[in-house]
Amino acid sequence: xxxxxxxxxxxxxxxxxALPSAVKGANDLVTRYDSTSTFGSKVCVDVNFGGYCQTFxxxxxxxxxxxxxLDDSIRGLVSSIQPLEKSFCRYYVTENCQDPTGDGCGLxxxxxxxxxxxxxxxxxxxxxxxxxEPGNMDNKIRSFICYRHLT
Length: 151
What we know:
Blueprint: H1 2-18, E1 21-24, E2 30-33, E3 40-46, E4 50-57, E5 68-69, E6 80-83, E7 87-92, E8 107-111, E9 143-148
Antiparallel strand pairs: 1-2, 3-4, 3-6, 5-9, 7-8, 7-9
């Protein structure tokens, strides 16, 4: 009986390890992410991906779901964002990858190719049920999280 239990547990582990990771998103839809391919983001202090830029990627140590706190040289100065190809990133106005508003007005979601001018970008506001206060994301991003997006 113990041997059967061992093989059942082993089979369950192998099936779970073979499945792609899933993250619950808005509307309780399951969004699929690939944890094995390169993902990440480029952030720049000037519009059109100019000026001083930093690129963070899984190839350089970024892990899936890891909160990246921007350093003093760029924190709060970002004017353009570019998730790497097939990446999904969530950018925050706080340093700890949390939305202080709780309703999506303190973050912004983006896919490749990103946004060349954050003055044109308004915070996400979950499900568009609420309008965020007037303003944009220019010079407000302080941290972000990225995933490799499959679909």
